[in-house]
TrEMBL record:
CDD domains: AdoMet_MTases (cd02440). Its EC number is 2.1.1.-. It is found in: Nucleus, Nucleolus. Residues 1-56, 69-112, 327-353 are annotated as: Disordered. The keyword Transferase applies. S-adenosyl-L-methionine-dependent methyltransferase that specifically methylates the N(1) position of an adenine present in helix 65 in 25S rRNA. PANTHER family: 25S RRNA (ADENINE(2142)-N(1))-METHYLTRANSFERASE, S-ADENOSYLMETHIONINE SENSOR UPSTREAM OF MTORC1-RELATED. Residues 343-353 have a biased composition (Acidic residues). GO terms for molecular function: rRNA (adenine) methyltransferase activity. This is 25S rRNA adenine-N(1) methyltransferase. Pfam families: Bmt2 (PF11968).
Length: 353
């Protein structure tokens, strides 16, 4: 800062206009999409610890879920209201935009790539290796020592672990693991190698060799609007697996911690009823991870045929209504989603937060 007794500095200060330079006076351009701005209006404040764009994608996912729940409700009988909801869904970008948000930001804000946790469990449990291959993996520890002192490790040939990734979108979750042979399916694929299939329509392998070691339902069951179809997913997964095969289930954590109808204990019991034994379970800040195995001595999944209805396990006005219904022997609901008309006469509100 110039000295006040410096005449030149005093003259320069007197000549200043008092206005900011032009480059400091320019208004910043908004980087927020107008549609997103409308979407975020009235929403909760953004968490400064998470990038704004990623939080916007997460909120877009929630808004899309909210619209889907309203469209799925049998209480929605007014054609005009349905039309407005469908228009709003398209304004947000439809299923394609939802999937892009899931791939490029929303999923990371909710806990990161869920495939990493599964791969860690597969390695620790040696899933996909039969007893013969497991013996080979132990022998691999002993190398051959050559005359010059160098070590040569024996090469062990194993079949690739077979994994069916349901709701894969772009099919990139397991792309970095060459020892995993992944079949990816999705209702609206974002890559040529992802097959366009509804889970219930995907062909069941005819031979044991063509069956899978793992079926992954990561953030899929909670997106299914039909409460009955959610239960059918748990039952149908057995069709694709080898004996003692594994199911990987991932849900938003509030589906268990803040639901009126589901908790960790109830989900454990429900899984046992549908032929699964819990092998590993983990909760992150946003997600709940479950790795379960086909139960029974023969590993074919012993099911008790019990029907699971909605039963209140946690009361409170601020709870969500996430539930999984199991109706063995009933048909998969086609062209219809959401709760059954008249089921407990309660409005379907499944916001996960």
């Amino acid at each position: 800062m110039p000295h006040t007794n410096n005449k030149a500095a005093t003259d320069r200060k007197a000549k200043r206009s008092g206005k900011k330079p032009a480059f400091l006076s320019r208004a910043r351009k908004s980087t927020t999409n107008p549609a997103k701005a409308d979407l975020l209006a009235g929403s909760a404040p953004l968490d400064p610890s998470i990038p704004k764009a990623r939080q916007e994608q997460t909120q877009l996912i929630r808004a899309f879920h909210a619209i889907e729940k309203q469209l799925a409700s049998p209480a929605l009988t007014n054609p005009e209201e349905r039309r407005k909801l469908e228009e709003e869904r398209e304004r947000l970008g439809g299923l394609k935009k939802y999937q892009e948000a899931s791939v490029h930001g929303g999923d990371k804000a909710r806990g990161g790539e869920s495939s990493k946790w599964l791969v860690k469990q597969i390695k620790e449990l040696k899933i996909g290796l039969d007893d013969k291959d497991k013996d080979k993996s132990k022998a691999k520890v002993e190398p051959t020592i050559l005359e010059d002192g160098s070590k040569v490790w024996p090469k062990v040939e194993r079949r690739k672990l077979r994994l069916l990734d349901v709701g894969a979108i772009a099919g990139t979750a397991y792309a970095g693991y060459p020892w995993i042979s992944t079949t990816s399916i999705d209702l609206n694929p974002h890559a040529a190698h992802v097959l366009r299939y509804n889970f219930f329509d995907f062909p069941v392998p005819e031979t044991e060799d063509d069956k899978y070691d793992v079926v992954a339902l990561s953030l899929v069951v909670n997106f299914e609007g039909s409460l009955v179809n959610r239960g059918h997913m748990l039952l149908h997964a057995h069709s694709y697996l080898r004996p003692h095969g594994h199911l990987y289930l991932v849900l938003p954590l509030p589906c268990l911690t803040n639901s009126r109808y589901l908790s960790h204990a109830r989900l454990t019991a429900l899984l046992g009823s549908t032929g699964w034994s819990v092998v590993r379970q983990h909760d992150s800040a946003k997600l709940t991870y479950w790795l379960v195995r086909r139960s029974g001595a023969r590993g074919e999944g012993e099911r008790d045929g019990r029907e699971w209805k909605r039963e209140v396990v946690r009361a409170g006005a601020q709870r969500n209504n996430f539930a999984i219904l199991v109706r063995p022997g009933s048909e998969v609901e086609r062209g219809k989603a959401g709760q059954q008309a008249g089921e407990e006469g309660e409005e379907e509100d499944e916001m996960e937060e």
